[in-house]
Amino acid sequence: MDELFAILDVTGEVQAKQAEVITSIAVMRVMLQGDLPQIDIGPHCSDPYECSFCGHCWQHIPENSVFDFSDHGRPDSFALYQQGILKMEDVQVERLKWRQKLQLDGLLHQKNHVDVPAVQDFLDSLWYPLCFMDFETTYMTPVPLFDGTHPYQQVPFQFSLHILEKPGSELRHHEFLAPSGSNPQISFLQSLLAVVPKVACILAWNQVFEKSRLHELAETFPDYRQEVYALTENIRDLMSPFRSKYIYHWQFDGSYSIKAVLPALVPELSYKGLAVNNGEMAANTWQQMRYENDEGRIAELRLQLLEYCHLDTLAMVRILEKMREMVGGFNQ
Ligand code: SF4
């Protein structure tokens, strides 16, 4: 504890500020007796933090508004709002960049877009064995959860890995889930390195996340540094063709998150109905297991975590199959 906190006596400073507090409370009481201030919505609603009154002040903003334009090149939403333009569909198409035109075209006409040569180039850059990898991590806590980790570090405690050895081969699955409560880092790393083929092409969704976690582990366990860096060299990002808008489906709603892409491209697979269905829930569930004494409940939570992470990598397998169908190279 001494390494994390410095204990200082600030009684004098606090006492010196007490008079200020009394004055501030008096000012606030007067303010509360007055009329509601007429302040329109603006960037101040989310900068530096999301205001808790957004639900009230933003009620007049319709669904699919100018604030829903996403990605690089999106128009200045507040400038449009100040001109009285609230709905996406009321923006003149000529004022939009190509990414936002795709989004608007998708919204108004359910139009999809596939840049076949660009998708083909991406597919051509992959090789076998082909792995689909996903990590779950602890949430970012100011006080580190484990010795040797730093504030706000996201420590991986779970992975799912699907492997295709060669075209048409049977899909293999490996997974790891550390017991909650103890530092999972070394067992996570050793378990992963034991199952990823050395020369595999590894697909992740938003590769920077998995790469960063692996580089942190490499710095913590230098004996594995070379092996880990060799592995991260082979990671490719399955999200990139979607972020680059090589593929855009109107149901993405401007997003390229796997949670938006999967239901549009592979509706037969779904996160709906899973007890754990996002990364934050996974982090919370793993922490919850730490405080459970009931073995049955712990087994149930473990299963929920395993189901969620398994779906994340299976989703990538199926999305890649869909991409191959789009360019006519299915299962090559
Ligand atoms: S949401 Fe908050 S910051 Fe924005 S106008 Fe309302 S009170 Fe002000």
Principal-axis shape equals flat
Amino-to-carboxy terminus distance: 56 Å
The fraction of residues assigned to DSSP E strands is 5-15%
Give the names of the bound compounds.
Answer: iron/sulfur cluster
Number of helices: 12
Averaged pLDDT, please?
A: 94
Radius of gyration from the alpha-carbon trace, in angstroms: 25 Å
Can you give the helix content as a percent range? Answer: 40-55%
Give your account of this protein's structure.
- Helices cover 43% and strands 10% of the residues.
- It is an alpha/beta fold.
- Strand 3 and strand 4 (172-177) form a beta hairpin.
- It has twelve helices and seven strands.
- The chain folds into two domains: 60-111; 116-332, Nucleotidyltransferase, domain 5.
- The radius of gyration is 25 Å and the shape is flat.
- The protein starts with 10 loop residues before the first helix and ends in a 6-residue tail after the last helix.
- Helix 11 (279-290) runs antiparallel to helix 12 (295-326).
- The protein has a five-stranded mixed β-sheet with strand order 4-3-2-5-6, with helices on both faces.
- The mean pLDDT is 94.
- The structure holds iron/sulfur cluster (SF4).
